[in-house]
Structures are given as C-alpha cells and as structure tokens.
Amino acid sequence: MTRVLIQGAGIAGTALAHWLHRSGFHPTVVERADTLRAGGYKVDIRGAALTVVERMGVLGTLRELRTDVRGGSVVDARGRRVASMDADTFGGRTHGDAEVLRGDLTRVLHELTADRVEHRFGGRETVTALHDTGHGVEVTFASGTTETFDLVIGADGLRSPLRGLVFDGDPVRHLGHHVAIFSVPNHLGLDREELTYVGPGRTALVYSTAGQADAKAMFLWASDPRDRDPRDRAARQDVLAAAYAGEGWEVPTLLKAMDDAPDFYFDALAQVHLDGWSRGRVGLVGDAAYGASPASGQGTSLALVGAYILAGELARHGAGGFAAYEERMRGFVTRNQALGPANVKRMVLRTKGQVRMSMAMLSILGRLPGRDRMLSAMLAPIHRAATAIDLPDYPA
C-alpha cells in the first residue's frame, strides 16, 4: 500500500486524505497545531467545488451548516445604509454556491476519515527535512524521528514550511494590501447581516452568521509590499490600529475588541506563483501550491478541486500523477488567481473621489432599470472562473 505523508490538516489536506484513502492509499496527516482550528471566517464553495463536495457525500451537511447571511449593506461614516442587497449578490454568489464557516468545513471533511486515517497534531510532528532516496522520501520530524513515505504532499498554507524545504526562491507575491479578521461582540445586534464601510485605501466590515452569538470584523487596507510584517501579535495590532487611525463609522469600537479576540488573524493579501507544483516524489496542493488570496473568493474551491484532482491522478499514474494533476489544474488556477487583484481594486478604493463616486453609484443602483441584469453581469466572471474545469469521474 502506498504511504503518503500530508503536512497540513486544513481544507486541502483533509480533503486530500479522504480521496487518497478512498483510492487505496495509506495517508498520514501531520499538523503543527494541537487540534483542528474551529470557527474562523466564512468561505464560499463554488462551481466545480460544489461537485467535489457532492461526490464526497457532504454537500447536504454543508448546506445545513450554511451561514444563512440574509443581506448586506454598504454604510457611510454615520452608519446610514447607502445600498442594500441580498446576501448572495453582496457576496458574489450564484448557481447554488454554499457559504459556511471555515472551521465547520474543515471539521466535516476531517470526520470523513477521522477513524480511518492517522492524524498527528502538535509541533513535534512537523517536517524539518526531506531526502529522496530514489525509492521513497525519508522524512525527519521536529521530534527527531525519521520515517520513509512513498510520497509527501505539502498542504500547509500560503507560506508552506514544507515547500521551503524543496522549492527554491520565494513564490509569494504581495498584492499591496493586508487583511485582518477577528471575533467581536455583536454590539450592533446584527442578525445574519453584513455591513461594509469604505474609506480611502481601507475597508472595514462586520457580519453575523447563523448560530453565532458574536460577530466577525474584517479589515482590508492598502499597504506597502516592501514593509516587513511584524511577528508578534501586539505589533500586528499596532499596524492595524495605525492603518485605521481617525476612521469613522464603528471602526474605533471594532478595533477595541481585538485585544480580547481569541482568533486574531493578520496577513498580507498574497498569492503563490510557481512554475511547477512538484519535485520528484514531493508535491503541493491548495494555498501551498497556488494560493489565490482571500480577495479571490476562490481559495477554498481551489483547495477542494485540487485535492480531488491530485488524488485521482496519483491513483491513475503513481508519482507520475503530479504532472497530470498540474496539466489539468493549471488553467483553472490561472483563471481563479486572476480574480484576486481585480476584486481587491473594487473592495478597497484608493481616493476620496473614488469613494464618493462609488457611494453615489450604489445609492442609485436600486432604482435603475435592468438592475438585476447588471448585477448578473458583474457576477459572471466569478462563475466562469469557478466552473472553468472538467472534473474526471475517478473510480474508487
């Protein structure tokens, strides 16, 4: 039986473990965190990814766990709603797309293999060295132990430590913006609603989802790619506070909540661009291979589709499946990564003039004839990118 080591128990890693196990492989998943990450922000499952989760048998479960956000509004500095629309239009969803919390999706995927696939949590089980013996990959873990696997897959995120052991250079491309997300008290009393405030070079939003007593605050702002991100949380919070100093609406109140937030997340909006996603018997999947950034809205779908294709091609071709996986996925990845830079320009407006013009257009949008047709045209590029791949029906 082919032994496969997967580093990373996020969406890509857990989905890959399921498909490999179903195809007769013996996967082992290692994760530096002590447990699965619960909660998290909301993510979308679109297009081809819907077919993948349906084939996994969990689409119905995920629909039951939907965030059930019902509407979204853009507000001005006084909190007045400039424009409101249904949640799917506000979030760029169409054709049955599913929105769930990231932690719920990871948990559902993990439960598919929890009693059949070995999972090792904690920093002592992360990979520190790899050596291709010609017949397998000798892996050294942080604990000092070594094991040999037939294949090794990095599913460990945008700044994949495993990728750094095998691939040269830094493939992470900064998109000139940062993002921060954390839980906040629902002091606005939102009921499955999202509010977005836009200032020059910075956007802030807050939303509540079904079954959650608190809310999530998200901040997107223009930044200098040359600036080095601080490593510690306090310094990162200082960067966020400085970026929004003097901003109106509910921003000061939301920022006060970050000190007590158990889930403070801060990172550059960035993408991963590699000429190839494998080296010998070592491959990459999800953000580690082709991170598209949260601005694309397609990171989750790329992870799910990539895991499905990679497992299917490895089952067909063995280690040669890496090349077939990349051939099938490359065009799909390119189209979906292109959404990131385009979307962030619409999400974060650079000047006061752009903000004023956008607010004026939004305020009259609801009264324009053909509104639904215009909104449909705006969402069409997302749907085309999300469905820009033919999924093979791999045998179990």
UniProtKB/TrEMBL annotation:
One of its GO terms (molecular function) is FAD binding. Residues 2-318 form the FAD-binding domain. Pfam families: FAD_binding_3. It comes from the Bacteria. Transmembrane segments: none annotated. This is FAD-dependent oxidoreductase.
